[in-house]
Amino acid sequence: MPPLGQPLVTLLLIIATAMVQLVSQLLLDRAIAALPRARPGWFIGFNKMAFTIVAVVILIVGHLVQVTIWAIRYYAWGELGNFFNSFYFSLASFTTMGANEFTLSPVHRFAGAVESAIGMLMFGWSTALLFDIIQRAGRE
Q: What global pTM score does this model have?
C-alpha cells in the first residue's frame, strides 16, 4: 500500500506537467506571432516550414521539461540508480513505450502508469497545437 502522501505528490506532478504544457503553448503563440509573414515572391512554403519547425522545437523542449520533472521524482526515490536512468525511465514512461530494463518498487509503480497516461494527454494536446499552427500557416 503506497503512503498517503504519494497520491498527493502524483497529483502535483500531473499539475506541474499540465502547467509546463500550457507555458509551451503560450511560448508557441508568441513565437509564431513574432515570425515574419510571407511576402510576394517568397518561397510559397516558407511560412508553413518555419511555423512547423518552431512549433516542433518548442513542443519537444516542453515535453523534455515535463519528463525531467517526473525524472527528478524517480531519482529522489533512489530506485533507478542515477539521474540518467531516472530520466530514461521517465521518457520511456511518458512516451508509453516503457523501460523493461528498469522497474519501480510496487509502492511506486502507480506513478509510472500515471506518467504514461499524462504523457498520452500531453502528446494529444501537442498534436492539436501543431495541427493548428500548420493550418494557421496555410491561411497566411
A: 0.88
